[in-house]
Specification:
253 residues, 6 helices, 4-stranded mixed sheet, alpha+beta
């Protein structure tokens, strides 16, 4: 049996949170993620992981408190579900999902819901695995987001994206970034690309999402990181320096 542990307000300061950056330069980013988690525990956030220093975990929260622009009353929303590298193919994902399902049932939830896409994309759950486990497509948002759901009751309503997140467009022009500290990597890489842009005489309009209400009103389903260019959604993949330099080269900066 997998040794699954739950990260709580009592043990978070001593627990490794799996996806956290491991080098010394990443300590501030790890801290920001843990602060974000501590503030969400009272909203029902659950973080379960294999008791190892590796990326084997599931993080979920009642949909009413999710940092995602969805209408999914009574659902449990999966923030992040990750089994990587050497840990794949050993049943860990099944075990983590089973624990999430049982927890959701015990809390009276009507189902699970999660944002993914038609094909596997960085920072999003694997849609093939979700469909294999019985998840269905509930709604779509531009340019590639799909809201999947797993009903746990016969009368479970079908969840949907809020209209603010469906078009993949905003009024603001230029480079525009929305992000949260839900992922520790954002605090590491956002300042890097802002500085790279400044070196080329360009600017990025940065909107850091600080509250649940702000997150539920974002113009993209994946509030953790959403990069827009000239009013159109470009990517949810966190830009590292090399990819951002390539983007600027391609767009004349």
């Amino acid at each position: 049996m997998d040794n699954i542990i739950t990260v709580t307000a009592e043990n978070i300061d001593r627990e490794h949170i799996c996806c956290a950056i491991s080098d010394k330069k990443g300590e501030t980013c790890v801290f920001s993620k843990k602060v974000w988690m501590k503030e969400r525990f009272e909203d029902g956030l659950v973080f379960r992981k294999l008791d190892i220093r590796g990326k084997v975990f599931i993080e979920y929260i009642p949909a009413e408190k999710a940092w995602c622009p969805i209408d999914a009353p009574g659902y449990m929303y999966i923030n992040c579900f990750w089994v990587s590298g050497q840990f794949k193919g050993k049943g860990h994902a099944n075990h983590l999902l089973e624990e999430c399902i049982e927890d959701a049932k015990a809390k009276g939830c009507c189902g699970l819901t999660v944002v993914a896409s038609k094909k596997k994309r960085p920072f999003l759950s694997d849609p093939d695995y979700l469909k294999y486990k019985g998840f269905r497509a509930a709604d779509t948002a531009e340019p590639f987001f799909i809201l999947y759901y797993l009903p746990l009751t016969e009368n479970a309503p079908v969840p949907k994206f809020k209209e603010c997140a469906k078009q993949g467009k905003i009024e603001e022009k230029g480079m525009v970034l929305y992000y949260t500290n839900q992922c520790p990597h954002t605090d590491k890489y956002v300042p890097l690309i802002v500085n790279l842009a400044k070196k080329r005489g360009a600017q990025i309009s940065v909107h850091k999402i600080e509250t649940t209400e702000q997150a539920q009103s974002t113009p993209t389903p994946f509030s953790t990181y959403g990069f827009f260019y000239d009013g159109v959604f470009l990517t949810n993949e966190i830009f590292g320096p090399a990819k951002f330099e390539k983007f600027m080269d391609q767009n004349g900066f």
